[in-house]
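Protocol step 6 of 9: fold each sequence in the batch and record its structure tokens directly after the sequence line. For illustration, a two-sequence batch is reproduced in full.

Sequence one:
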Amino acid sequence: MQLSQTVKLYMTKEQQSLIKATMREYINTVNNLVSIAINGISIVKYTTADVKANLPSALTNQCIRDAKSIIKKYNKLAKYNKDIKAVATIPILRKPCFYINNQNYKVDGDYIKFPVFVNGKSKRLSVKTKMTTDQKTIFANNELGTMRIVYKNNKIVAQIVYKKKESAYNNIGNVMGVDLGIKCPAVSYVSGGNIKFYGNGRKNKYMRRYYKCLLKKLQKGKHIDAIKRINNKEQRIMRDIDHKLSHDIVKTAVAHDVKTIKLERLANIRSTTRTSRKNNHSLHNWSFYRLSQFIEYKAKLAGITVEYVNPAYTSQTCPVCGHVHHANDRNYVCKCGFYIHRDVLGAMNICNSTEYVGDSNIRHAA
């Protein structure tokens, strides 16, 4: 499995200037190569000798690979959409960045060493970083992949890809069903009977409403930079919450010897969920898919399989008699006498469901 770590860079003014120049030259080179290919000149056999760029040969080679990848995607799109207008749809890179393959950079203690162009010659920079102990362990014990130098929250950082070995799967064990929602972000039910609630839906909704009101005020005042900062901050907070929720869910699964986690494929939740004025904004901005993905990759690292089931009627079906009806607010009471919290019912039915509908990459409605 490929994962990544973001590392802060502590550059001198000279290093920062060189890195910024390299980022600009990199995307300009890629965009020029794409433009050449779009205009009918093949770049399939291009080498560094065919490209004029103020970049080290390693980065120039990476530019050629990136341009070929962009062109491949463009041609695939054009094949399925014959009405595409090439001039209007030429793909270009806008965000300053550059990529370096694992053969051309080195993580050395608290420093990262990589090549840049200085006065017409390739020179290896040694940039100081601030790595955590965990990051140092990861880089020392795993195979490293491509490194990207990019802006993140107006700061230049290094994003390093590494390959993590997945634990061996073992199907002999308990099954966990996880119900995702808004009022309660997640509820888990283990086949042995263990139930656990995760997160605080009201706090999350309040946070979203707060930032929505704040954005409105800033938009009226036309504070563009502040709007960008607020948007980034909200996304960082919600992403952090999803990471913590998924970590707790997988931790619970490991503690109860769970070997399979079942999730709903919530591809059509926004069109099927009953909305209200209060939860409408939260519903259409909540990333159920992202939380599912976080649970999935953390589960794989723990040697737990993840399966996706049909979400239809999971919060309405009585597990005792099979009767289907809506719950009264958060309480589900069946005519047969069975009663339970609605979200726990959903997690229970997901745990017991055998209506598999594929993996998380299938996003159409079930």
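Sequence two, same batch, same settings:
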Amino acid sequence: MPDTETAAVEKPKWWHRWFRTPSELREMGVVGINMRNARFLLPNNPRRLYELVDNKLRTKALAEEFGMTVAETYCVVRNPHDANRIDKLLDGREAFVIKPTRGSGGKGIMVIYKREGKNFVKPSGTEVTPGDLRNHVSNILAGLFSLGGKRDYALVEYRVQPATLLTDMSFQGAPDVRVVMLHGYPVMAMLRASTKESDGRSNLHQGAVGIGIDIATGMSVRAIHHGKPITHHPDLGICLIGVQIPDWDTILHMAVTCQEMTGLGYLGVDIMIDESMGPLMIEVNARPGLAIQMANGIGLMRRLVPVVEQHAKNPTADLETKIAFSKKHFRAKLPEPRD
């Protein structure tokens, strides 16, 4: 019989590399969902402001009022009649993205890469018939992918053509940059790149790659896939470390402006970089996930606490002051730039 006492103590070599005890996580400053909600989200995000970001149509309209560039809306499907003729409404469109206006976590997003005859093709190569498209839009209207399961609208918009540098880092889909902020101070950022598994979507839980970005410079410093550190894209084989993200200062300014326009204290902003239009504001999230800590290899607590202290000292700091503070205090150890 095996020695159960020994078996309970001895772990395989990989165990200590990927798994941490609660005390180790606290020492690293890792923020869990309960701590995020109790200490940072609930005290700083008034419930009345959630509607501004939970409805993508309202968020896009607000962003345009503040002078930000957003992806063009092709159409909004609001009823079963339009859902049944969605292929007609998109006649002449070769590529587009369909998403629920109140979706979360990447659920319900369908990316269409091109057309082949009467059918549509997703980044994975899977064909979508007009009937499949109608069914998907109908499911969105029924609230299948929406917060609280409430009835919803389907938003169809421009499929971002990513900047050439970023195209090499993502399998078909357009990568997006997420910036997490507290009181308007950028505290952590990552690039989310799609894989064949994620089917053109950038959600980490669906198999996308998370790439940590240095707040000060915009250079990629670390990458993960399914929570495990990697250095190269699992499908493309390209190195993901030491890449300079284009238009970094513009991205930071856009993120902080999103905080100003919503009034939320703790939030995440998703931005895509289009080859011709530059950074586009895609979405604002009042409940940003915590995987960004793994992508950067550092706990959020080590950055949130200095921001709380700084905000207490200077509650009326302007946009430039906040960005300068974050660049100075949250600079990462940079890798050598890739060739």
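Proceed to step 7 once all outputs are recorded. Observation for sequence two: Residues 22-69+162-329 form a domain with the D-amino Acid Aminotransferase; Chain A, domain 1 fold (CATH 3.30.470.20).
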